């Protein structure tokens, strides 16, 4: 027996399992479902969408590598979203705001150039990069110290 249900109506059932609320909704109107989903989907689906398109693809056997790069991906996307928000508030035209791919490329270039001109490099200095050609004077070596004997 099929009943006539008005387009746009829904039936929602809520249950609880192990202190977790579950909700199942049956909609009559597909257009309404998509509209409601898009209005309330939140940032998780949007973040997953961006990460799916611009993921850092590095294979490793270490289990810690995958969560690290996932967090790095999320950080880059959040930085881009902040960049967009700040530039929109400043009144910058949408066409003049970088797309995510361009933002990632610019960020990578900037990070590669970071400290390339730094004078405080770690490790042993190279002879080619040394601007001062004078060799620093060495301290004279002192011989081993003689300790008094412990014999009485």
Automatic annotation (TrEMBL):
InterPro entries: PGBD. Residues 125-136 have a biased composition (Polar residues). Signal peptide: none annotated. Residues 116-152 are annotated as: Disordered. Residues 22-80 form the PiggyBac transposable element-derived protein domain. Pfam families: DDE_Tnp_1_7. PANTHER family: DDE_TNP_1_7 DOMAIN-CONTAINING PROTEIN. This is PiggyBac transposable element-derived protein domain-containing protein.
């Amino acid at each position: 027996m099929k009943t006539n249900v008005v387009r746009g109506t829904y039936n929602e059932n809520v249950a609880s399992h192990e202190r977790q609320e579950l909700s199942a909704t049956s909609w009559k109107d597909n257009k309404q479902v998509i509209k409601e989903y898009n209005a309330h989907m939140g940032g998780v689906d949007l973040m997953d969408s961006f990460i799916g398109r611009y993921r850092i693809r590095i294979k490793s056997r270490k289990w810690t590598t995958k969560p690290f790069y996932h967090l790095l991906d999320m950080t880059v996307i959040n930085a881009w979203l902040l960049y967009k928000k700040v530039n929109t508030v400043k009144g910058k035209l949408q066409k003049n705001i970088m797309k995510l791919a361009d933002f990632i490329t610019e960020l990578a270039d900037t990070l590669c150039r970071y400290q390339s001109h730094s004078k405080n490099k770690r490790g042993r200095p190279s002879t080619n990069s040394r601007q001062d050609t004078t060799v620093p004077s060495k301290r004279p070596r002192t011989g081993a110290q003689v300790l008094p004997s412990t014999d009485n």
